[in-house]
Design brief:
Order of helices and strands: HH
Radius of gyration: 33 Å
Amino acid sequence: MAADLSIEKLVEEIKKLRSEFSQVSETLLGRAREQTIEAAARVRHAAEDGWSEARGAAAVVADRIEEQPLAATAIAFGVGVALGMLLTGRKRW
């Protein structure tokens, strides 16, 4: 009889532990979801800031090209020649 009572107590303890484990799991899952949403919002905000800065820099470059088209053409030509020489592997300078 004493063995039956201790087995019943063990079964009750296991049931309680299962319930507590389920609650802890749900809490952890909810917190993980919250942190994921917060991280996604931070990434989205950083990407929007970066995109805005890139558009601003592109506008500045476009303005300078319009102001000095010959200099921009010469720079583009020089960069193209340098890249062409690097990519073809020629070492004639």
